[in-house]
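1st attempt posting a full record on here, be nice pls
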Amino acid sequence: MNLCKQENNLTFKETMKWNDYLAAFEAVLDGTNKTVPYNDEAYLEYVKLNSSRQNRWIKKMVLSEETQNALRNVRTPQKWILITEPWCGDAAHISAFINAMSEASGNIEIDIQLRDSEPFIIDNYLTNGGRSIPKLVVQDTHGRDLFTWGSRPKECQNLMLSLKESDLSEQEKKAELQKWYNKDKGVSVQQEIAALLQEVEHKEVA
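the predicted structure (as tokens):
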């Protein structure tokens, strides 16, 4: 995550809202979207699994009181740009929470951008040189970046780094990450983004 205030004159191909993003899942699943990488059978399986996981969070998610307070304290309009893809396993556990947070504030507008489609906004927000997603970019009304977050909560990222050094198989590593997300229940992503929002508000007041 990175707290900053810089101006990025981004060009957006089109605005995608949450329902549009859910429709993007369906377009892959029903065969309407067969563009790269969704012309690969393996990616179709990823999307099926991620759709199931995401829908479960949509039904079961709870925004904490701390998170709701932080969102109520957003007093100036913000634009949230969520860069993601239906194939991304981490996004399946995170994106619904970010969208719910944006909807809980009257001062937040969310725009979802796909990592693998033009104009490739992710290239402005690399993580250690990589195009890791999901990535959240929060801007003010002048298009200046207030902060970025992603692609995983800190504890989950530390786990991932530890797993990379382990002798576990790729399938076992994925299973460990899945266990972490199931246990965390979206708490960490809420806490980390809420803390960044509070920091921005404190700066605005000062």
